[in-house]
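ugh ok so i messed up the first submission bc i forgot one of the chains. this is the corrected input, ALL of the components this time, i swear. 1224 residues overall. if the numbers dont match what u have on ur side tell me asap before i send this to the collaborators (the ones from the other lab, u know who)
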Amino acid sequence: MADGRAPRPASNEDVLALHESLSNWARFGERDQLGTLNLVTPERRIAAARLVRSGRTVSCARPLPTEPGPENPQPVLHHMIGTAAEGWGGDFIALAPHGFATSHIDALCHIFHAGHLYNGYETARVTSHGALDLAIDALRDGVVARGVLLDPPRVQGRSWLEPGEALHPEDLERAETAAKLRVGPGDVLFVRTGRWALRAANGPWDPRKRLAGLHASCLPWLRERDVAALGSDGVSDVVPSGIEGAGLPVHTVAIVAMGLHLLDNLELEGLSNACAEEGRNEFLLVLAPLVIQGGTASPLNPIAVF
Amino acid sequence: MADGRAPRPASNEDVLALHESLSNWARFGERDQLGTLNLVTPERRIAAARLVRSGRTVSCARPLPTEPGPENPQPVLHHMIGTAAEGWGGDFIALAPHGFATSHIDALCHIFHAGHLYNGYETARVTSHGALDLAIDALRDGVVARGVLLDPPRVQGRSWLEPGEALHPEDLERAETAAKLRVGPGDVLFVRTGRWALRAANGPWDPRKRLAGLHASCLPWLRERDVAALGSDGVSDVVPSGIEGAGLPVHTVAIVAMGLHLLDNLELEGLSNACAEEGRNEFLLVLAPLVIQGGTASPLNPIAVF
Amino acid sequence: MADGRAPRPASNEDVLALHESLSNWARFGERDQLGTLNLVTPERRIAAARLVRSGRTVSCARPLPTEPGPENPQPVLHHMIGTAAEGWGGDFIALAPHGFATSHIDALCHIFHAGHLYNGYETARVTSHGALDLAIDALRDGVVARGVLLDPPRVQGRSWLEPGEALHPEDLERAETAAKLRVGPGDVLFVRTGRWALRAANGPWDPRKRLAGLHASCLPWLRERDVAALGSDGVSDVVPSGIEGAGLPVHTVAIVAMGLHLLDNLELEGLSNACAEEGRNEFLLVLAPLVIQGGTASPLNPIAVF
Amino acid sequence: MADGRAPRPASNEDVLALHESLSNWARFGERDQLGTLNLVTPERRIAAARLVRSGRTVSCARPLPTEPGPENPQPVLHHMIGTAAEGWGGDFIALAPHGFATSHIDALCHIFHAGHLYNGYETARVTSHGALDLAIDALRDGVVARGVLLDPPRVQGRSWLEPGEALHPEDLERAETAAKLRVGPGDVLFVRTGRWALRAANGPWDPRKRLAGLHASCLPWLRERDVAALGSDGVSDVVPSGIEGAGLPVHTVAIVAMGLHLLDNLELEGLSNACAEEGRNEFLLVLAPLVIQGGTASPLNPIAVF
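and heres the new structure output, hopefully the right one now
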C-alpha cells in the first residue's frame, strides 16, 4: 500500500543504501551461486506444475535479432552453411547476448558494484576464461517455477507504456489486483511494458536513451515479495533511471545486492494475449539457459505453460 | 515382440522401402511444419505436468563444447568480452550446432532425401536466408511432453555400450520392461548409450567412425509407438550403420519420412542417475529451442522434471 | 577532352549499352581470372619499382571498423583472447568485408549482371563453398603497380567533396593536370573524395543514401585509359547514381563488363598529404589481399611507396 | 664462423642470459613501438626497390586454413553469405591468427617475459580493449625491405627438414654461402624448413610436438646481423626447443628482448622455387598487415618481388 512505503529513492546515495538494506549476501550460504533462485524449492516446483490446466504453451523470446537497429548495434550473425545447394540444411550463429536486443538471462557475475559481485565475491572471479563463481551454468538444471505476468499497460487499457515511463510499486500492485493474484516467494515475475508492440507500430528507437521500466523504488517491493527472478520486454530498469549517478539501479541492486537474476528483452506480447485468453496471469514457467561454462549470460526461450 | 517383427533392414533398398512404409507425409496436413510433434496435444501436456512429483530438475545438455577433439573439429567459440578488468561480465559465443559435439535439436529442414524434405517440401525451401519451411522456429512455443529414458547399458548392468554397438527393438523393449513403462504416442524418448561416461573414462574417439546407437530396425518400432521426438547422448544412429549406402538411416528416415525431430549429443548420465534415484524413468520434459528464424537446428538444454 | 566525349549516361539503357561497349570479355582469354590486372606486366612492375625515390611508405587502409554506425551496421568483431591476465597477447577477428566501412578489395565474382559474371562465367560458379572462378585468391601473388592518386577536392582547394557529389571525366582530368601526370595502362588509380575527413569533422552519415564518387560517365574514361584497378575512400560509385534502375553502375560495369577490380572504403587522407609533401601523385603501390580460397573479397592495407 | 661462436645455449639460464645480452631495449628510444623494424630506413627501402629486376611477384602466404587438423584445432571460419542464389558474391571470415596454421605476423605485444613486454612496457598495456603499446597497427604503413630467403633443405639437396630438426648458425651461414649473399641490417629474413611440402607428401602431424626450426643458438646471430624481421614456414623456433624450461626461446628472446617481429606459418615453397628460377635469394619484400587497432597479430600475405 502506497502510503506505508518508504520515500522513493531519489539519489545515488539512496541506491547505495538499498545495497545494504536489500542485501541477500550470506542469506543462502557463503558459497551460494544461485541467489534468490534458491527460493524455488522442490515444493514450489510441484505447485507450479499443478498450474498446468489447459496445456497451452507460449514462448517469451524474440527471434535472435539479426537486423541492425538503434537497439541492436551488434546484430546476431546467422549464416546458412548448408542449403539446397549443399544437400543438407545447416547453420552457424554468433552472438554476444547482453544488451538491448537479444532475449537473454543475465548471470549474477554480469554486474559489479564497489569491487564485488553478489555475495561478496571478488570481481577477479570473472576471468578471461570465464567466471569462476556465479556463472550461468549454475542454472544448468533449469528454473521451473510459478510464473506471473504483471501487465501495466493492459491494465490501464493501453497498448504500451511510453519509452521512459517509470513503474512504481503501486503500478505493480494495481496490476496484481487486476490479475487477482499476489506475487510471492519463489515466483518468477515478468513485467510487460509493450515495448515490441510499440516498435512494430512506430519503428525502433535508441533504448539506451529511453525505455519504459521499473523505477528503483520497486526494489524494496521485489525484496519483500522475495521474487526469485525478474524479466521484462525491456531491461527491467526504466531509462533514464531518474537517479543521477545510477544508470541501471534495478540491474545493479537486484543482481549484486539481492542475487536476483534478470531476464532482458523478452517477448511478452504473446504471453499477454495468452493470459487474457486463459483468464489468468499465472502459469508454469520453465527457463532453460544453455550450459555455458563460466558464462555471464545465455540467450534463452522461456516457456510458459498454462 | 521380437518374433513378430519384420526382418531387419539389411540394405539400402530396405531403407528406401522404410521411407515409404513409415511415411507421415500429409498425415498432419499438407502444410504441416511440426511432424510428430503434432502428437504432443494439450491433453498430453497436462498429463505430462502431472508426472511432477518430487520437484527435482535435471539438465540433459553438455556444456557448449569449446575444446577441440576428434568429435569436435569446429569447437564452439566462447570469448569473454567483459571481465574484472572491464568492470562487467560479458561474453560472446559462436557455434554451428550440427555434428557430434554440441547438444542440439535438428529441425526437419536439416536432412534431405531424394530431392525433398519431410512432407514433400522441395529442398529449395532451404535457402541462404534460412529455411522457408520446417525451420526450428516452428518449435518456438517449446515442447512440453512426457519424457521417457530407455537405458540399455544400465539395464544390462554395464556402464556404457561399446562404440559401434547397435540397439534393436528388442533392446528398447527390454529397457522398457526394466523401467516398467511403455513408450507411447506423444512421448519424447531419450535413449542412453553411456557415451560421455565412456569418454570420461577412456578418452575421446572419432564418432564418425563408430558410435553406439539405434539400428535402422528400430524405425518401424518408433513409428508404431508414435514417438514425438527422439534423443540420445549419441546421434541416435549407430555408426557404422551396417547398411551399405545408408550412412545415417535413422536420421534420414526419421526426419524426412516420419517428421520425427532428433536431439543429438545430449548429456544423459545425470538423467540416468536421477531415474535410478527417483525410481522411475518417466518425467515431465521441456525442450526450449532458441527462436532462430529459418534455422536448421538449435543448441538447447532439455530439462527433465521429476 | 570534354568536348569530344560521348553524351553522359543518363538512363539504365545507357548503362546496359556500356556493358557492351566497354566489355573486356575474352580480351585476356576465355578462362581469364584477372581482368584488367592482366595489364600489370612484369615490365610495368619494374617501372613501378623505379618510382621509389624517397623511401616513404603510406598506408591506404582504415583500421578495421569495430564501432557501429550508419555506414557500419555489422561491425567487425575484435576480441582480445589473450591479455595481461592470460600471460600472452592474442586476439580474434571476424568480419564480412563488403559494404561501406571496411577497407577491402572486391573480387570479380562479387557482382553479377544479367545472369553472368565477368568474362561470361555463370553465376553458378559462386557456390556456397566459395567461388570456383574469379575468386580473390587469383590475386594471391599481389598487385605491384604504378599507383596514382587523383585528388579532386585538394585540386579544388576544398577539404572534401559533399556526399552525393558526382565526379565526371573532366574532374578526373583536371586532377591529372594538377598532378602533372597521365593515368595510363596498368595503373592502379585511387580517387579521393575526402570522405573520412568529412566524417571526422561532422560525424557519420548513411552512405547508402549519399556518397561522393564517380558518375557512370567515368566508365568509358577508365576503359580508354586501361586502368588496372580502381579504388576510393568511398565505393567509387557516386550515391545516388543519378541513373534510375542502376544503383551502383560503376561497380557493375567495371567488375562485370571490364573485369576491373575495385577497392572500397580506403583511407586516402594520409596518401593525399604524402603526395603534397612528396610533390608527386605517383608511387609504387602494393596490394596484398589475404589468400582466401574461393573468396569474394579481402580486407587489405594497400601500401604506397614514394 | 662456427669456431668463434659462444657455446650453444643449453639451459633456461642461458636463455635468460640472452634476454640481457641481446636486448634492444631503449636502443630505439624509450617509447619505441617498432623494435628492429626501425632498421628499415628510407635508404634501405630505396635500395630494396632497386632489387626488382624481373618483375615477378610471389606470395608467401598459405590460404586461410579452414580445414581442421593437428596443426589447426581452431579452423578459420569462411562462410559464403552471398552466392548465385543471392544474386551477389559475399563472404565472412573469422579467425584467431596465432598458432601453427595461419600465415601471420606477431606484434611485439604478443609475448611476455618476466612481467614485461619488449622495451620494458608493463604487461598491463595488453588490455581487453587491445594493446596500448606494441600493437600490430604500429606497422600500418607496412614493411618494405630487402627480403632474403635462406633455404637449408634445398642447400642440402633435400625436400624438407625433418620435424624437430634444429638449425644452428652454421646452417644459416651455409645457406648464405650457397645463396651468395650476406644477411645484414634491415633485412627481413625468411628461413625455409619445407614444412608444407612434407605435409603435402606425408600428411599432417602435431607441430606442438615437433617442428623444424631455429635453435636458440641462432639468436646471437640474428642480433649480430641486425635482422629487421624473421619469418618461417614453421614458427621459427625448433620444437622441441632442446632447452628445458624454455618452450619457444626464439619467440621469447626475439620478441621481448630484441623487438624482432616474427612471421609464422608462411608458405615458402613458391618462394623457394622462384629463387631457384630467378637465380637469386634476395628480393623486394612487402609486408602489409591489416590495421587492427590494439591487435596482437595480423594474418597477412607477404609479397616478394624479383
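quick check: The helical segments of chain A are 12-21, 42-49, 152-155, 169-179, 195-202, 218-225, 249-258, 269-278. that seems consistent at least. Chain A touches chain B through 80 residues (CB under 8 Å).
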